[in-house]
Amino acid sequence: MTTPILILTGPTASGKSAFALSVAQKRGGVIINADSQQLYRDLRILTARPTPEDEATAPHKLYGMLAAHEACSAGQWLNLARMEIDWARKNGQVPIVTGGSGLYVKALLEGIAPIPDIPESVRDQATSDYEQMGKDAFADRLKWVDPDFFTRLKVYDRQRLIRAYAVWLGSGKSLSHWQSQTTTPPYKPEDLRIYCLTIPREELYARCNQRFETMIGQGALEEVKQLLALNLPNTLPVMKSVGVPELSAHLRGETTLETAITLASQATRNYAKRQLTWFRNQLPHAIPLDWQQNTADFAAIPF
Hints:
Elements: E1 5-9, H1 16-27, E2 29-33, H2 52-57, E3 60-61, H3 74-90, E4 94-98, H4 102-110, H5 120-133, H6 135-145, H7 147-152, H8 158-171, H9 175-179, E5 192-198, H10 201-218, H11 220-228, H12 244-251, H13 257-282, E6 287-290, H14 295-299
Parallel strand pairs: 1-4, 1-5, 2-3, 2-4, 5-6
Helix pairs in contact: 3-4, 5-6, 5-8, 6-8, 10-13, 11-12, 12-13
C-alpha cells in the first residue's frame, strides 16, 4: 500500500503544530512545513515555529530554512516539499504537511503554473519603477501589458502589482500568460488525506490574543529588534510577517508597547479570518477535525 500524504491545515493559533507532532510521534511521521512565515529562521517566536524540543521528538522539515533577506515563491516551496514528501514515503514514513498558507496548499493539490524565476535585479527594477511612478501610473502601465491581471483580481496591492510587472519585465510574457498554462497535480487525489482543524471563532480569537501576549513574554520584541538591526527593506516578506510591523513601530518610538500588542493581536485575528474564508471556499472537501479532538483517535485512523 502506498504511504498516504496527510495535509493538516487550519487557521493560525488553532493548534496545528501540536496536533501534527502528536500524530507524527504515534505514526512515525515527518512534519513538513506549509507556513510561509515559519520558513524564516529569524522569527522562531513570532511565527510560533515548533520549539527545538519539539523538533527533537519528530522529524521537522522546511522550518527556519530561509535567511531574512530571502523570499520563497509557492513554486519554490512546492519543489522543496515534494522532495521531502517523496523521501519520507520512500522510507516508509508518513508525510504530514502542516500549515496555513493557502497558496502552498493549493500548489500541492493542483500543481502550479510554470512561472520562471525572476532575478532579484529585475524585481528591484520593478520596485524602483513603482516608487517613481506611483501606484496609479504603474497600474496603468501594467494594464497595457497584462489586462487580464486586473479582471481576475478584485483587490490588488503594491506587492501583487510589482510581482506581475516583474514577471513581464523578466520573462517578456505576462503573469496571466504563465498562469494560463496547463498545470499537473503533483500527486494523485487518492494519495492525499486533507484535514482542516475547526474551532469556534470566539475561541480562535481568544487564542490569537493570548498567543501574542505569550510571544511577548517569550522574547518576540527582542526578536524583532534583531531583525531591524539588519536594515532590510520593508518590502521583503519577512518584514510583513504578522506582528513585525506593529512591534517595529514601537521599537522606533512611534507607539507604546500596549498599542503595538493591541494592533498585532488584531492583525493576527484578521489573518485567521482570511484563512477561514480561504479554507471554506478552496477546501470544501477537507475532512473537519474538531480542535478538541483526541489526537490518539486521529492517529488511529487507518490511512
